[in-house]
Amino acid sequence: MKIPITIPAVWAGLTIKEVLEEALLIPRKIRHFLRMEKALSLDGRPVHWQSLVAEGQVLVLEFKEDWYESRLVQAGQADQVEVVYEDQHLIVVNKPEGMKTHANQPGEMACLNHVVAHTGQTCYVVHRLDQETSGLLLFAKNPVVLPLLNRLLEKRAIKREYWALVEGRFAAKEQVYRDPIGRDRHDRRKRRVDPRGGRSAQTTVKRLKLGSAVTLVACQLATGRTHQIRVHLSHHGYPLVGDPLYHPQPEGRLMLHAHRLSLVHPLTQEPLVLRATSPSFEAGITFAPTS
């Protein structure tokens, strides 16, 4: 697997060693293989470990599959994948509601399996969506870009915005919830606000459209706790319409859709701002607005 990388301005002046260690987060074992097998070049020429890089130069890394631990993922159905963005390194898809991000049982088919069928190669989950939630989902297409995307996620440099339809008239134009979230001791499927033992969580909620009994809001995550939006909003008296865990109703989907994803591509430095819609989510917004 050859991966060409055009050196961005922010890496100019670094040594090859610093690029591999600090910019690309290449594991020590893999750096050793690259060095011993002379499996890297700069503008088509062999390079020393202390060679400096300049903006616009092309660094080519050649990886062998047996350098990384293999992960066998059963292929699903390629026609189940709605691609929003794809390149050599990553793929973003629009997951429908009712589909898991990844399988939990042998033989189970999930979004990851369908992405593998579409790409024809092993892919890796970067972040997750609840089964009932639709929207944008990011996967790495090789083990080289995976730690870079994970670092962006940890640094909160991958921005995710959700649309949610909630019960009640959301009072504020904008509200930030910072309640810690932990496991529900009475129901292992659920999470709850736990001021003492919970993990830090932050959700920014903006009112988009106000109805007589429901409100359409946009939610931005600064953290990625399980069921974070669902827990924060239900805890403060605004449960999501159709939520099977926190606001059970006889019919209808969970009204939560990840509609916007933005990040700076970790290898090309290209700003990506991606959006996706959901017909079933839009069909569920059936209230008469009052303002």
UniProtKB/TrEMBL annotation:
GO terms for MF: catalytic activity, acting on RNA; pseudouridine synthase activity; RNA binding
Entries under PROSITE patterns matching the protein: PSI_RLU
SUPFAM superfamilies to which the protein is assigned, alphabetical: Pseudouridine synthase
Catalysed conversion reaction: a uridine in RNA = a pseudouridine in RNA
NCBIfam families xrefs: rluA_subfam (TIGR00005)
PANTHER family (UniProt xref): MITOCHONDRIAL RNA PSEUDOURIDINE SYNTHASE, RIBOSOMAL LARGE SUBUNIT PSEUDOURIDINE SYNTHASE D
Protein known as: Pseudouridine synthase
Species this protein is from: Streptococcus danieliae
